[in-house]
Amino acid sequence: MANLDINNTFKRTSNNYRLVVTNDDTYDEVIAFRLSRKSVYIWVSVSFILLVGLTIGLIAFTPLKYYIPGYGSKESRSTLQLLKIRTDSLEQTIHYKEQYLEGLKKVLSEGNPQQLDTLPLQLPESKQSTD
User: Percent of the chain, pLDDT > 90?
Assistant: First the structure.
């Protein structure tokens, strides 16, 4: 396994390198950069952070967020919540009616005139406001 020296690694990040862009036909130097590994790491990191920040800002503060699946507008979310409440109350009503019909079928099918009692419905207690 290679022997890693922390001081040597930090020294290598400070070494300067030269990046030259030349014209392939005339071999003229178009542009030259003096770089170090540390400066390249810093520029790549800053560019990544800015790109992520701009993307998040673009999605959060523009109408593009409505194209994200599952987001929707405020009106559609409130309408969905109202529909969920109505569906729950309808399910409860159907359950109570089924309970009533089962009790009625039981009474009618037994044919015993002595026992004409139906099953009591198990209704939740209604909350009455005291205003």
Answer: 45
What are the CA-CA distances from residue 81 to residues 15, 19, 78, 88, 115 (Å)? 62, 60, 5, 11, 45
Q: Which residues pair with 35 in a beta bridge?
A: 17
Q: Please give the span between the terminal C-alpha atoms of the chain, in angstroms, as a whole number.
A: 80
Domain span holding position 20: 7-67
In a domain, 119, yes or no: no
In a domain, 128, yes or no: no
Q: What is the pTM of this model?
A: 0.49
Helix, strand or coil, per DSSP, at residue 98? helix
Contact 28, 22 (CB under 8 A): yes
Query: What are φ and ψ of residue 33, in 5° steps?
Result: -125, 145
80 assigned to some structural domain: yes
pLDDT digits (tens, 9 = 90+) for 54-70: 999 999 999 888 888 87
Distances (CA, A) of 48 to 35, 55, 60, 117: 19, 11, 18, 76
